[in-house]
Amino acid sequence: MKYTLEPVAVIKTCFPEKFGIPRQSLLCPSAVGELILLPPYNQKEAVAGLEQVSHLWLSFIFHQHVDKQWKPKVRPPRLGGNKKLGVFATRSSFRPNNIGLSVVKLEGIEFRDKSNVKKQFGSQDPQVILHVSGIDLLDGTPVIDIKPYVPYADCVIAASNLMASAAPPSLSVIFLESASLFLDNLAFNKNKNNAVDFKQLIIEVLQQDPRPAYHEVDSARIYSMFLYDFDIKWSYRYDINNLLNIDVVAIIDVAVTKIK
Ligand code: SAM
């Protein structure tokens, strides 16, 4: 039996590329997204009642992997990237049917009328937008269903998973001078709250340690990832207590660099 699925929404997120996206949802509460309902689902009626709900289940397509062949065994980064497990024992994005599942926080529901929409998006379609946070999704991910989280049924107090029993430990994130200066300027030129939220987003994302699991610590190596239009660069360093820290060495506004 074959099914054809059409997305009900597409999500705009702070993650323009895969590298650095949190490995599960809700790990980075400052990672926000806008779930834009697509026609014919972009109706107020379709979300009536959702304002009573704090969290959503999103079923989505790992759309950057749809052309990749699935394999029965995968190497989850959580296990160091060198141990193989059955694909159905993992949350790997390389899987049959390419379907992902994330719980996210519903921050608000917005309706934009046709006149505003035409100005902003060049289209006449009315906009129904669900503002969400705690996302682990690439910008442009197609969402195939949205459901309310039902705490009494979905939160299984006695559940266990011996392969991933707790959230991974988080690293300390330190902003070096040039990165701090960049954030100070951002706060000065734009909105102070935006800069504070952006700093918090960088901390939450980097403290998850985005480095591929098979990379040894190499303090000379500079890593880079994009958040929105900003290129974030960092390196690793052991402190005097032999704890691994992350130093944010630079933040570059790529949109500004392109204009120059
Ligand atoms: N919570 C979801 C689940 O369990 O199905 C996703 C978990 S999966 C391990 C999370 C990773 O999927 C992210 O770190 C990112 O690298 C990748 N990812 C997110 N959106 C994607 C997309 N649209 N296409 C391909 N990979 C994606």
Write structural notes for this entry.
Helix content is 18%, strand content 30%. With 260 residues, the chain is an alpha+beta fold. The strands form three sheets. It has a six-stranded antiparallel barrel. A hairpin with a 2-residue loop joins strand 10 (223-227) and strand 11. The longest helix has 15 residues, at 192-206. It is globular, with a radius of gyration of 20 Å. The model has no long low-confidence stretch (mean pLDDT 91). Bound molecules: S-adenosylmethionine (SAM). The site of S-adenosylmethionine has 18 residues, from strand 6.
Bound molecules: S-adenosylmethionine
Order of helices and strands: EEEEEEHEEHEHHEEEH
Number of helices: 5
Give the neighbour order of strands across the main sheet: 1-2-7-6-3-8
Low-pLDDT stretches: none
How would you sum up the global shape?
globular
Measured on Cα atoms, how large is the radius of gyration? 20 Å
N→C terminal distance: 54 Å
In total, the number of strands is: 12
Helix content: 10-25%
| Main beta sheet | 6 strands, antiparallel, barrel
Mean pLDDT: 91
Name the structural class. alpha+beta
